[in-house]
Amino acid sequence: MNVFTDLESEVRGYCRTWPAVFERANGCHIYDETGREFLDFFSGAGALNYGHNHPHLKAALLEYLSGDNVVHSLDMSTTAKREFLERFHAVVLEPRGLDYRVQFPGPTGTNSVEAALKLARKVTGREEVISFTNAFHGMTLGSLAVTGNALKRGGAGVPLSHSSVMPYCDYLDEGSSLDYFELILADAGSGVDEPAAVIVETTQGEGGLKSASESWLRRLSSICREHDILLIVDDIQMGIGRTGPFFSFERAGIVPDIVCLSKSLSGYGLPMAVTLFRPELDVWEPGEHNGTFRGHNPAFVTATAALDLWEASDIASEVDAKAGMVEKELMSLVAELDHTDHRGRGLAQGLVFDDPAVTSAVVSGCFERGLILETSGPHGEVAKLMPPVVITEEELEHGLGTFRSAVRSAVGAVR
Ligand SMILES: *Cc1c(COP(=O)(O)O)cnc(C)c1O
Fold first, then answer.
1. Which protein residue's CA is at the shortest distance from atom 15 of ligand 1?
2. Domain extents for the chain?
3. Most exposed residue of 65, 145, 151, 295, measured as fewest CB within 10 angstroms of its CB?
């Protein structure tokens, strides 16, 4: 029996993209069981921004485990949780002047989004939440109701309700998407109930790497303030340095009411999530929203160690420099090839092909050449380059060269 095809459910996905059985991983590389090396431009969909098995994080984790420190504790107070909260306050919140309460929902991204949506509805007493075209917020019913993808929504099997969709930044032209939103809010006949919250990604990781401009985000934030609507930024994929700064919204100069973080928060690929919100919004009753895995101490330990990296180096400028290399490469491919376009920012950029069959050929061509990357967008039309943010310029250059040759040969073969 092949357990992967005969025992594991048909729902499996990524293993179909990369036909290999992976065994070890280190830094920007992952190895299959035959010892074949792949450069990782996937980074666990954004869960491995510091690469695989980062030595500083691993050392902290091993020390914690070998000392018989507590692993599972629901939301009891532990020394590991205290250290994480102290360091998160000192390294992330305080220097940015952010006054947020920290909620530990269940350990995944969608858990953070569900907590955010529930809290926004409880605080405002309203039901409606506004999301944007091509948004991705997770697979549980509340998150799915604010997610755009038709295939994923179809999996719900029940009506997805209490949400309305508005055009994202460049869905219409940039200005008119928010003109439309304002029109809807002002029109008692619009059919959209007064919203509790707006939920937005600064760059749509799954929805095709479309980015909101800083001015669009600022205008969205002021519309929310004007109408007393809570602004939730889902920074699960674009946060923790993916686009440079710790929070992807920092450069726009906005302060969301609620922030969702998960993926690279633990820094080690261990499940961990937080929902951050302004203290005035903290209207939860004790235990009103709970879960068994809200205090995964090994994840606290690696998350705390990962914050050392933010103190030790200027991650944002390093990402800017590497993002410039990616952009230059992608722009030169766009100039060379017809029917292509560039999307994204920071170390979440991609090349869009008119024909998703070409994108798919690019991804397999990369795999054959020892480079792992995935697609993004409703038709899988974007080849998405997401190297670890700690990648060296040499490794990045190497991966971009592999990508270029896979693109040229895929374009030649499919046309
Ligand atoms: C991955 C992701 C989620 C969901 O996280 P899970 O851990 O898969 O539940 C939500 N929002 C965004 C933007 C994501 O990229």
1. 237
2. 3-54+314-414, 59-312
3. 151
